[in-house]
Write a structure and sequence with these properties.
Helix content: 55-70%
Radius of gyration: 38 Å
Largest sheet: 4 strands, antiparallel
Subcellular location: Cell membrane
Structural class: alpha+beta
CATH superfamily: Outer membrane efflux proteins (OEP)
Pfam families: OEP
CATH class: Mainly Alpha
Strand content: 5-15%
CATH architecture: Up-down Bundle
Protein name: Efflux transporter outer membrane subunit
Keywords: Lipoprotein, Membrane, Palmitate, Signal, Transmembrane, Transmembrane beta strand
Number of strands: 4
Distance between the termini: 60 Å
CATH topology: Outer membrane efflux proteins (OEP)
Shape: elongated
Signal peptide: 1-27
Strand order of the largest sheet: 1-2-3-4
Length: 488
């Protein structure tokens, strides 16, 4: 009995040594060493770089701090809480995380418990006796089934690839959040400016209707020609058409907002701020081009995809080498249930298996070549992401540097045009100016007011884009500083 136990202990010790040795060998990793691609730009700084507040960066600035309009902030909070696209992005992160956990579990042996009872009847002829016999067998055990030793780092590289896929998906979610904030702000501004344009059109329509009634009266008394009357009528109908177009734009912007916030427009909406007081910060520093690698989630996503492709090369290389898997059990068996855990009824088995690739070299070579091509694709996509990010920031900075001045000039020009129209109206009322000159003045004043609104809207949208392309609120979001509605 003692010799049996000694033999069993010796074999289990040998198994332990084998597993330990395999784990030491598993330190081998065939994946190429990762190197971040170098992407060169024309300049070490942005041409139209902005200084802004040197103590704050868009990356660190939460949207609740950047936007000043209470109504807009309420809508952004609802969108972050209810938006379906953002919810799908968050669920994708969760799904890929579970997939990573499944892949990572292959690094460790799975221990399974089993139990069985086998009852059988043996025919009398089989026993060579006059009567049949019924037998029972009971067994229980713990075992490891087909645990592959990671000698060449294949499982570890597959786990690393899954981990980087998870990180990339998380970056995609963060990018979706930043884009959602910008989309809500732009839809909100589209609605606000459509309403402002409707007011301008209504005022112009009222003025033109008065002019039309005067022109009609003059025509009936033979003071003016029918051309003057038709011109005034044309301008009235044009203002009506503009109003309907702006009404459509407002309703479509409202529909976009309803979709973005994921539900009905709130009835208890907060008060609005004026269009001149939409942002808490006058400007945002653009920072250095190298900081784009830290602030932009699309660049970070592309790099994680590249790291995953790099790890897959290591897994593909490991396919050329032998693989060893272990299956072993230890337990107890007996023909009587009462004696299952007593007496000399212990059982064990140990079945190592080795698989050596011989005739599948071509398939393994093609698999390795495929992973290398996919890595090259990931490199190009990373470089493209960096270049696109630089262009995005450069374009927004150029617009930011010019739109402010353009708006200021357009504001002065519009004020002058409106005043000129007022003076022309006075001259017309006094009979000094003719109707065509007065109508032309009204048309130019109206166009100038609509142009001013368009430039102002473009400028506000540009400030939203600046916040977006600089990774606005990303750090605050990840640190849990963003309050209501952030998707977890």
């Amino acid at each position: 009995m003692t010799d049996g136990k000694s033999t069993m202990v010796a074999k289990l010790s040998g198994l332990t040594i084998t597993i330990a040795a395999a784990m030491v060998l598993s330190a081998c990793n065939l994946a190429p060493k990762y190197q971040q691609p170098q992407v060169f730009t024309d300049s070490n700084d942005f041409k139209y770089a902005t200084q802004g507040n040197s103590d704050i960066k868009a990356y660190e600035l939460g949207w609740q701090e950047y936007f000043a309009d209470p109504q807009l902030k309420q809508l952004i909070g609802l969108a972050l809480e209810n938006n379906r696209d953002l919810r799908v992005a968050a669920l994708n992160v969760e799904a890929v995380e579970k997939q990573y956990r499944i892949q990572r579990s292959d690094l460790f042996p799975g221990l399974n418990a089993s139990g069985s009872m086998n009852k059988s009847r043996t025919a009398a002829d089989f026993r060579g006796q006059n009567s049949a016999a019924v037998s029972k067998q009971y067994s229980v055990g713990l075992g490891v089934t087909s645990y592959e030793l990671d000698l060449w780092g294949k499982i570890r590289n597959l786990s690393d690839a899954a981990l980087n896929d998870y990180f990339a998906t998380r970056e995609a979610r963060d990018a979706a959040q930043i884009s959602l904030v910008a989309s809500v702000a732009k839809a909100y501004y589209a609605e606000r400016f459509a309403e402002e344009a409707m007011k301008v059109s209504q005022n112009v329509l009222n003025s033109r209707e008065k002019s039309y009634r005067l022109a009609d009266l003059k025509y009936k008394h033979g003071v003016s020609s029918k051309i003057d009357l038709r011109t005034a009528e044309t301008l009235v109908e044009s203002a009506k058409a503009d109003y309907q177009s702006q009404l459509r734009a407002r309703e479509q912007a409202r529909n976009a907002l309803v979709t973005l916030i994921g539900g009905n427009y709130p009835s208890d909406i907060a008060a609005r701020a004026s269009l001149d007081q939409q942002f808490a910060y006058a400007g945002l520093p653009s920072g250095l081009p190298s900081e784009m690698l830290l602030y932009r989630p699309d660049i970070r996503q592309a790099e994680y995809n590249l790291k995953a492709a790099n790890a897959n090369i290591g897994a593909a290389r490991a396919a050329f080498f032998p693989s060893i898997s272990l299956t072993g059990t230890i337990g107890s068996g007996s023909v009587q249930l009462d004696n299952l855990f007593t007496g000399p009824n212990r059982t064990w088995s140990f079945m190592p298996q080795i698989s050596i690739p011989i005739f599948n070299w071509g398939a393994n070579k093609a698999g390795l070549d495929l992973t290398r091509v996919r890595k090259e694709i990931s490199v190009v996509q990373y470089e493209q992401a960096v270049q696109d990010a630089f262009q995005d920031v450069s374009d927004v900075l150029v617009a930011n540097a010019t739109l402010k001045n353009q708006y200021a000039s357009q504001r002065k020009s519009t004020a002058a045009e409106v005043d000129r129209n007022r003076l022309m109206q006075m001259r017309f009322n006094q009979g000094i100016a003719d109707s065509l000159t007065m109508l032309d003045s009204q048309r130019q004043s109206y166009a100038a007011q609509l142009t001013l609104l368009a430039v102002q809207q473009e400028w506000l949208n540009n400030r939203v884009d600046l916040y977006k392309v600089l990774g606005g609120g990303l750090k605050a979001y990840r640190d849990g500083q963003v309050q209501s509605g952030a998707a977890e």
